[in-house]
């Protein structure tokens, strides 16, 4: 069982059920455990038929794993969601303003509100982007913001995923499977839909087309290929949007424009939803050994003849040290106080922070600044003495490559496990789309730490997913 100091999203301290969970609680009381287990196995079969797997590279080779799916939904009230939505839109607007600023006038640096070295010496800062104007001044069209909860109204942003955020296909398929398995449950609850996401995404991408072709732009999704861990999502989204899924070899640059090779000849491309990193986009500008990108693509992009979503250079907003300054970005660019706050964070490049963290490694979570997917991190309270000692040596070799945060008391949700219904820790990745307008899909991807007591929700580390319900007012 979860410790008493973990916020239980379904039950209050007196064990009464919170209003948002009334329908789910009633359902859980009535459905037999054997029926729950049968439905869980049915869900697993559905996911296998759909081919929804995740490549786990640390297990030797491209090991394909089925992401565990929990059939007990996570529920947010209309008021809770409205609060989150306001905070997410505010944050993503500030991050887009920051990205435009650092590649243009760099006013936040000149004003002394952010260290120059953190930006200009950052490996994710793309000097090639300086001075390039983008449609609507938007750099990040698709954001996945990781949010954790520690109390009734205590929501914190854990990470901003601004480059090529993944996971939205699991959000959509989790909902589809739940609706197949439990149609009566949906009939008794006013759950906001998520099925319109692909249409909203396509509208967002089309709104980013170069001005000259904005009326009827051609949009494609650029994937690294079948062996990428998120290939299922790439293929799924392309199919759902009704656009072509392409690899670098399917595109070419001719006469200053990008074209797609088709059976009927070349077709001009106006917007590329790219799911490959900056380094591999164009071998003539970035990594010369890349075979995933398109030679000459960046020059077309810089000339405004094609739009890349998300923009080149957004990786600096993913940086976990830059993350520390997002609340300041909100104040600087928006003239507002942040609605959603950060988790307290130490950057080990600062001597005082380094001293404190080294003295408290056993109590903290330490992460690589450019890390992702739960790899390369230390969860101090769960680590052995030898693991802490080894990580200390890593930190001392390059302190600026690490940040540290307190071990958060993540909220718990009821989850179906081997012993029945039990609390498990969760986070939430809502997806924010920025185009002609900024929109947030009502819900997002809830990730759940399936192991008892675990705080690591990443699918690459054994975490699972849940359907996320936002109740309509």
TrEMBL record:
**UniProt superkingdom:** Bacteria
The secretion signal range is: none
Q: Which residues form the Circularly permuted ATP-grasp type domain?
A: 73-449
- Which protein, by its recorded name, is this? Circularly permuted type 2 ATP-grasp protein
**Origin species:** Marinibaculum pumilum
Give the source lineage, highest ranks first.
Bacteria, Pseudomonadati, Pseudomonadota, Alphaproteobacteria, Rhodospirillales
């Amino acid at each position: 069982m979860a410790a008493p100091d973990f916020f239980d999203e379904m039950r209050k301290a007196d064990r009464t059920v919170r209003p948002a969970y009334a329908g789910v609680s009633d359902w859980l009381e009535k459905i037999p455990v054997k029926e729950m287990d049968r439905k869980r196995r049915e869900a697993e079969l559905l996911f296998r038929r759909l081919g929804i797997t995740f490549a786990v590279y640390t297990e030797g080779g491209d090991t394909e794993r089925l992401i565990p799916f929990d059939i007990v939904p996570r529920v947010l009230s209309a008021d809770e969601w409205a609060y989150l939505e306001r905070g997410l839109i505010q944050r993503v607007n500030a991050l887009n303003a920051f990205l435009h600023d650092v590649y243009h006038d760099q006013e936040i640096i000149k004003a002394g509100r952010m260290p120059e070295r953190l930006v200009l010496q950052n490996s994710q800062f793309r000097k090639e982007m300086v001075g390039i104007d983008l449609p609507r001044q938007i750099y990040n069209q698709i954001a996945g913001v990781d949010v954790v909860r520690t109390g009734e109204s205590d929501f914190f942003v854990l990470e901003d995923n601004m480059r090529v955020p993944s996971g939205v296909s699991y959000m959509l398929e989790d909902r589809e499977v739940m609706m197949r398995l439990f149609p009566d449950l949906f009939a008794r609850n006013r759950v906001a839909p998520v099925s319109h996401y692909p249409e909203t995404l396509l509208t967002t991408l089309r709104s980013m087309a170069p001005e000259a072709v904005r009326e009827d732009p051609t949009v494609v999704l650029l994937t690294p290929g079948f062996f990428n861990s998120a290939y299922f999502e790439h293929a799924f989204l392309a199919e759902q949007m009704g656009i072509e899924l392409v690899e670098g070899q399917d595109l070419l640059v001719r006469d200053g424009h990008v074209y797609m090779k088709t059976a009927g000849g070349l077709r001009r491309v106006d917007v590329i939803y790219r799911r490959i990193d900056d380094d591999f986009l164009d071998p003539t500008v970035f990594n010369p050994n890349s075979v995933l990108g398109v030679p000459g693509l960046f020059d077309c992009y810089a000339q405004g003849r094609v739009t890349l979503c998300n923009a080149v250079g957004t990786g600096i907003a993913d940086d976990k040290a830059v993350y520390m300054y997002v609340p300041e970005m909100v104040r600087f660019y928006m003239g507002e106080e942040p609605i959603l706050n950060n988790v307290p964070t130490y950057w080990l490049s600062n001597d005082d922070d380094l001293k404190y963290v080294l003295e408290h490694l056993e109590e903290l979570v330490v992460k690589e600044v450019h890390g992702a997917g739960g790899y390369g991190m230390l969860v101090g309270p769960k680590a052995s003495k030898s693991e802490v000692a080894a990580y200390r040596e890593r930190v001392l070799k390059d302190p600026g490559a690490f940040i540290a945060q307190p071990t958060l008391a993540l909220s718990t949700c009821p989850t179906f496990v081997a012993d029945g219904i039990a609390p498990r820790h969760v986070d939430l990745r809502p997806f924010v789309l920025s185009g002609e307008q900024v929109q947030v899909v009502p819900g997002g991807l809830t990730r759940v730490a399936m192991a008892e007591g675990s705080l690591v929700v990443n699918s690459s580390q054994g975490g699972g997913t849940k359907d996320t319900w936002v109740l309509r007012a």
